[in-house]
Design goal:
Largest sheet of chain A: 5 strands, parallel
Structural class of chain B: alpha/beta
Distance between the termini of chain B: 43 Å
Number of domains of chain A: 1
Number of helices of chain A: 6
CATH architecture of chain A: 3-Layer(aba) Sandwich
Oligomer: heterodimer
Number of strands of chain B: 13
CATH topology of the largest domain in chain B: Heat Shock Protein 90
Structural class of chain A: alpha/beta
Radius of gyration of chain A: 14 Å
CATH topology of chain A: Rossmann fold
Largest sheet of chain B: 6 strands, mixed
Strand order of the largest sheet of chain B: 2-3-1-4-5-6
Low-confidence stretches of chain A: 89-95
Shape of chain B: elongated
CATH class of chain A: Alpha Beta
Strand content of chain A: 15-25%
CATH superfamily of chain A: Response regulator
Largest interface: A-B, 22 and 19 residues
Strand content of chain B: 15-25%
């Protein structure tokens, strides 16, 4: 019997980005579920526990991704969370989740720039899933 | 009550206590202010002492005698000017020569009260200097807030412009790597989505141009008598292809002779915005009732749709720039988030108002009132 595929939740309000991310993650060999808003993402998390989650930062509000990550970590502290955003290039504000202090308030394991290459993304996901 | 700190710099104790007495219980209010101003006095007998007080704490108004025992008033003023203090200076001086007066003005003195002065003269001078100070501070704050808003606008704008580029780039990369197949047919959905995103971006740029022209006030306005009903019919004609696609019926009703003095292009933008929203946010097979009525003091334009409606919570954010109400029902509808903001700005140019009434799942009615 083959090993069960890992499940990745992707939440993004840009339907094209969502579609592309889904395609890419499925090509890596994972199963996916998707949601297009913070509230929809929360609903999914209440019934399903994915193995990893990827959230867009700016959805309903500019910090929806943070809020969602916070709630997700409260439900499933061990589930790795990636926040993907294009914010850095736009605002000049960089976020990194490296220090312990950062981890306290940004409840994400990794902060990714949108537009990252597929192989990089694959590597990061594998690292978080300890594959 | 806002207390302004007044520093009195004069070597004559009688003058200092005199000013203290006059201003102690004096308050002034301005019609545009919620709060009245009152005054708290600090006294200094020399210029050196005055500079010491200024260095230690904040003062709002400085009443400055020129003839002082040590450094002269004009030198104190020069120092104050160098410090770029957020304070206003008024010279109190008995022998203001033209030379000193010119110098003082150059160093930023607000005005002069010649000694001796009556309580009434002092109060009048204090009133004007308080108003000046308040307005100066207000302007500074508004400029700062303006810059802040500008920055927010630009960062949201760049997000809105980059999202479609990212989406199209993503699809092109997938095609480049032939990720889902070797035939062009495997990528048709991606090509369609890319074209939709390009169209959305073009719309955003057009809206942005309208907004920029409006905000800079450089839009060439050509005000003349125009027939609103005629422009309305044109707008309906423009929206027809989209309405047919969604099978939405547009009913138009207008009195004859809807003559109004306006800029044709601006009215077109208003009508196009109202109609395209009514089509976009309508249901399949929905209807639109578009009426123009002439009342005694105004023209009332009503666009009523049978669409998805807007919740009360979202109504309040409707006219903000780049606000797009994001719900499951609006997800697939494209828009720049600028249309209503532009429309409202235009209506305001005519002294008009925009009202919205909406019931979720029943429909929305926009009412534009243009005073005659």
């Amino acid at each position: 019997m083959s090993e069960l595929k890992k499940l990745v939740l992707i939440v993004d309000d840009d339907q094209d980005y969502l579609e592309q991310m889904k395609l890419q993650v499925e090509l890596f060999g994972f199963d996916t579920i998707t949601a297009s808003s913070r509230s929809e993402g929360e609903k999914m998390l209440s019934t399903t526990r994915p193995d990893l989650a990827i959230f867009d930062l700016m959805m309903e509000t500019q910090d929806s991704g943070f809020v969602l990550a916070y709630k997700a970590k409260k439900m499933y502290p061990d589930m790795p969370v990636i926040i993907a955003t294009a914010a850095t290039a736009e605002t000049g504000i960089t976020f990194k989740v490296e220090t312990e202090e950062d981890k306290n308030w940004i409840k994400a394991d990794l902060y990714l720039e949108k537009g990252i290459r597929g192989d990089q993304l694959h590597r990061e996901i594998n690292k978080l899933l300890k594959i | 009550m806002e207390k302004l700190k007044v520093l009195i710099v004069d070597d004559e104790p009688g003058i200092r206590s005199g000013i203290e007495r006059i201003l102690r219980n004096y308050t002034i209010g301005f019609p545009f202010l919620d709060e009245d101003f009152s005054y708290e006095m600090i006294e200094a007998a020399t210029g050196e002492e005055a500079l010491d007080i200024i260095n230690k704490g904040h003062v709002d108004i400085i009443l400055l005698d020129n003839k002082l025992p040590g450094i002269q008033g004009i030198e104190v003023l020069e120092e104050v000017n160098k410090m770029k203090l957020d304070a206003a200076v008024m010279m109190i001086t008995s022998y203001a020569s033209l030379d000193i007066a010119v110098k003082a003005t150059n160093f930023g003195a607000f005005n002069f009260v010649p000694k001796p002065f009556t309580p009434q003269e002092l109060k009048a001078a204090i009133e004007s200097i308080s108003k000046h100070l308040f307005l100066k501070r207000m302007t500074k704050r508004m400029n700062k807030e303006g810059k802040q808003i500008r920055f927010q606008f630009l960062s949201v704008l760049s997000h809105e412009l980059k999202s479609p580029l990212n989406a199209i780039e993503g699809y092109l990369k997938i095609m480049q790597d032939k990720q889902v197949g070797d035939s062009i047919d495997d990528y048709m959905a991606m090509i369609d989505r890319s074209l939709i995103r390009i169209k959305g971006m073009r719309g955003l740029i057009m809206d942005l141009l309208d907004l920029t022209k409006l905000e800079s006030g450089k839009k060439n306005r050509e005000l003349k008598k125009i027939d609103l009903a005629e422009i309305a019919r044109l707008a309906i004609h423009t929206i027809e292809p989209l309405a047919i696609q969604r099978n939405v019926k547009v009913h138009f009703d207008s009195d004859e002779d809807m003559i109004f003095t306006a800029d044709t292009e601006e009215i077109e933008i208003i009508f196009n915005n109202l109609l395209s929203n009514a089509v976009k946010y309508n249901k399949e097979n929905g209807e639109i009732h578009f009426n123009i009525k002439k009342k005694s003091t105004a023209i009332v334009i009503k666009v009523e749709d049978t669409g998805i409606g807007i919740s009360e919570e979202n109504l309040s954010r409707l006219f903000q720039e780049f606000t797009r109400i994001k719900t499951d029902k609006t997800r697939d509808i494209s828009g720049s988030g600028l249309g209503l903001s532009i429309m409202k700005k235009l209506v305001v140019l005519y002294g008009g108002t925009v009202d919205v009434q909406s019931t979720p799942d029943i429909g929305t009615t926009f009412t534009v009132t243009l005073p005659l």
